[in-house]
Amino acid sequence: LPDLEDGLRTDADDPTLLYTLAAAYALVEQPDRARTTLDALFRVDPAHAPGRTLARELARAADAARAPSTP
């Protein structure tokens, strides 16, 4: 993660870097940081398909976490 974060300091508008960092945050269970990074990605590339897919997956996971558990 530190290398990806450093890369953003050099090129904050790189869609590939933004998506990769968002995916990495998601993998290490930092969904808030993943969503924030995806927001930055969508400002640069609103139609970024893999980013949109990741955003839907994060939303589904958040919904599942909020859903009441069944016995």
Keywords:
71 residues; elongated; mainly alpha; 4 helices
Could you say which structural class the secondary elements and strand pairing correspond to? mainly alpha
DSSP summary, beta strand count:
0
- Shape assignment: elongated
**Runs with pLDDT <50, length 5+?**
none
Amino-to-carboxy terminus distance: 38 Å
> Helix and strand string, N-terminal first?
HHHH
The biggest beta sheet reads: none
Outline the fold blueprint.
Blueprint: H1 2-10, H2 15-27, H3 31-44, H4 49-66
Helix pairs in contact: 1-2, 2-3, 2-4, 3-4
Give an account of the 3D structure.
Helix content is 76%, strand content 0%. With 71 residues, the chain is mainly α. Helix 3 (31-44) runs antiparallel to helix 4. The radius of gyration is 13 Å and the shape is elongated.
Give a brief description:
This protein is mainly alpha-helical. Helices cover 76% and strands 0% of the residues.
